[in-house]
Amino acid sequence: MANEIHTIGVLTSGGDAPGMNAAIRAVVRQAIAKGKKVKGIQRGYAGLLQEEIIDMEKRDVSDIIQRGGTVLQTARCKEFTTAEGQKKGAEICKKHGIDGIIVIGGDGSFRGAQKLAGLGINTIGVPGTIDLDISCTDYTIGFDTAVNTAMEAIDKVRDTSTSHERCSIIEVMGRGAGYIALWCGISNGAEDVLLPERYDYDEQRLVNNIIENRKRGKKHHIIINAEGIGHSTSMAKRIEAATGVETRATILGHMQRGGSPTAKDRMMASLMGAYAVDLLCEGKSNRVVASKQGGLVDFDIDEALAMTKTVDDYEYEICQTLSK
Fold first, then answer.
1. Cα dihedral angle (321, 227, 245, 211), rounded to 10 degrees?
2. Which of 3, 130, 217, 302 is in Cβ range 3.0-4.6 Å of 283 for a Cys bridge?
3. Burial grade of 271 (CB within 10 A; 0-12, 13-18, 19 or more)
4. Is the Cα torsion angle 61, 67, 73, 78 positive or negative in sign?
5. Which residues share a beta bridge with 287?
């Protein structure tokens, strides 16, 4: 077969996400089961350009499925955004006998994969990001763990917020996407949820909600603020000044990226990693693995990167209704 793959490279790129190790494990074991060699590329595209490439066997991925982060590590790489860097990366792949590569990461990582595919390296993307912001897929590796981590932290903040009769603004991650905030808004029963996709920057509405809830005897007020809006500390100061209610900001930050992945993240990462190997073995390239309506499919990377999505209207409506 003209496009037969003999050696598969695997790397993790961009922000880390719980479940990436499960995906790496699946790639290594599925590839070996199909008679392929596997090479791990450390520190993403930066490591590729530095030729930080190791041979991987089944035993190398033993006892990693439960670990957060990525055993291959990850890094941002400005050099790989240039044509010279991309050409160098393709040449290094060929030098090490890598004729197929699996990239686990987000949209930025897929753009790098797209360039490698154009330079003759069969490439498959696997969606790994806690933000759930890859448009072609209903699910991304790491989201479930991150949202559960945030949910549990918000429950704890609510306890102390109630004890002190405070308003708490809790900032969750997600870059410009509000999926973690939306899910926590519903799951934690927050009084207000601020999403980049929907927020109108009307702080007076928040002030009015807090005052009205106090009149009804509410002892606390939880505002979940998405990272894409940010400025939680200054917002807390303004709200306290306007309401007279003690208001604290809590920024959950990178704790949401860590921790042992949930069963869902381990399962989805394992299936997606194995599916990516299957696609390479079928001679496919420039594809992204995606979850759609409960099943695995794949899209052309060009098509996937051109797609857009936003928060579901009904989910947002229910979030607003249940908060009242």
1. -30
2. 3
3. middle
4. positive
5. 124, 300
- Reference 70, options 12, 124, 113, 26; nearest CA is 12
Q: Is the dihedral of CA 132, 135, 139, 141 positive or negative?
A: negative
Is-contact 115 79, C-beta < 8 A? no
- 259 secondary structure, DSSP code: S
CA–CA separation, 164 vs 84, rounded Å? 58
Among 16, 99, 107, 131, the active-site one is 131
Question: Looking at residue 97, what is its pLDDT?
Answer: 96
Mean pLDDT of the 262-266 span: 98
* Four-point Cα dihedral 29, 85, 289, 105, nearest 10: 80
Specify whether the CB–CB gap between 12 and 142 falls below 8 A: no
Torsions phi, psi of 35, nearest 5?
80, 20
Quickly tell me which residue has 């154009």 as its tokens.
118
Average confidence score pLDDT of the chain: 95
Type and span of the H or E element at 267: helix 263-281
Choose among 47, 99, 127: nearest CA to 281. 99
Where are any strands of DSSP class E within 106-246? Answer: 122-127, 167-172, 192-194, 221-226
Structure tokens at 270: 């394992």
Assigned token pair, 57: 């066997």
What's the pLDDT tens digit per position in 117-145?
999 999 999 999 999 999 999 999 999 99
pTM assigned to the model: 0.95
